[in-house]
Amino acid sequence: MDVRWAGRPSHALVAAQLVLILVITLVDSLAPPSVHLGPFLVAAPAITASFAGARTTAFVGAVAVVAQIVVAGVRTTALDLNHSVQIVTLVVMSALATVFAHRRELHEHELMQLRSVAAAAQRVLLRPIPHRLGPLRIASVYLSAEAEAQIGGDLYAAVRTDKATRLIVGDVRGKGLEAVGDAALAVGAFRAVAHRQAGLPALMAYLEGAVSSDLADPGDPPSEHGEESFITALVMEVPDNDGELHLVNCGHPPPLLLHEGRVTPLEVRRPAPPLGLTAFAGLTEADFTVEPFPFAVGDLVLLYTDGVIEARDASGTFFPLADRFAARPLDDPEALLRHLCQELLAHAGGRLGDDAAMVALRRS
After folding, report:
1. Half-sphere exposure for 320 (CA within 13 Å, toward CB)
2. How many whole angstroms separate alpha carbon 215 and alpha carbon 141?
3. For residue 137, what are the contacts with CB-CB under 8 A and spacing of at least 6?
4. 3-state SS class at 298
5. Whole-angstrom distance, CA of residue 299 vs CA of residue 258
6. CA 12, CA 2: separation in Å to the nearest integer?
7. 3-state DSSP call for residue 315?
């Protein structure tokens, strides 16, 4: 059924209401005197208001009123008390249906504007990562837990330096517009300096300063969610010519490395606290430990947020990401993410409880 926005109904749907009016008019005209089908004519403008605009609804309502007058003239007279009441009632109900259709049009127009704003915000906050950066093939995906939302508190970004590629994946504590704003802050700070900072510790110190200056101090009154804000984040640097990658993990789930059919979580020995909390832990630039891991040609690395591994099925079982990753090793990062998204949504029954983001990269 083709129901379009902004009061543009399918011609077939409008024609169906006119046919309904015709059928009711013919049957009512031929029915015994004790049978009155005229009240059913109100169904036509009422149904039309659910999918068409105010003008179309008013037109169908006017046709229904004319049909009721014709029935009254055939059976008795339009001045008959019974038919007069039916005509007046039909006029009133058609007018109400027209008002309803007008309000629905306004609501749909506002919804379309909000969707366009959300799409623009998504393009700014989560610009698609290029499919190739240096020797890497990359794919990314974002799944929002909200039905009408396209962005939330999860974030990812990638930038190029002279001889390496740097990526960030993070998750803001909380939901709603506050989480979107915090995610935008972290992504903006990363994009602004990731290609200029010489080392990852200096980059992490800058990100911490930018995030801490904006997020609520734990000593301040609670946020709207009743808790202090922070961002779990993982920053990765992949040199072009070395067979390894470098990680700094700030309380984020570890990436998964697929090497020769075996999946290994890249657990760092010295993780840092989440961004927004390190200043209160007394950490300095030197405390952000960079740890190397092997990353050979043909290897796949999967970065993700906790919305992926915390997705539950009907029995409460968490999504087994590592097992699904290993069960179907795919060389193409885009094909891998398509497969994992299908598996994730099927596991969660088609609806996630939290936003989920994934980034897959392969050294070619």
Report:
1. 7
2. 26
3. 131, 332, 333, 361, 362, 364
4. coil
5. 6
6. 9
7. coil
CA separation, residue 161 to residues 76, 195, 204, 240, 298 (Å):
87, 5, 16, 10, 22
Contact 3, 16 (CB under 8 A): no
Q: Give percent of the chain with pLDDT exceeding 90.
A: 44
Assign 3-class secondary structure to 318-329: ECCHHHHHHHCC
Q: What is the structure's pLDDT at 3?
A: 37
Residue type, 43: A
Please report, to the nearest 10 degrees, the dihedral formed by the alpha carbons of residues 41, 44, 47, 50 taken in order: -130
Average pLDDT of every residue of the chain:
83
List, for residues 201-225, the tens digit of each pLDDT value: 999 988 888 888 765 444 444 454 4
Residue among 110, 102, 94, 103 at smallest CA distance from 47:
94
- pLDDT tops 80 at residue 315: yes
For the chain, where are the alpha helices, taking DSSP H only? 11-30, 43-49, 54-75, 81-125, 176-193, 200-212, 306-309, 321-327, 333-347
Residue of 229, 221, 227, 334 lying closest to 276 (CA atoms): 229
* Bridge partner list, 157: 168
Q: What is the pLDDT of residues 69-107, one digit of tens each?
A: 888 888 776 567 777 888 888 899 999 999 999 999 898
d(CA 37, CA 67): 12
| Six-digit token string for 358 | 């994934």
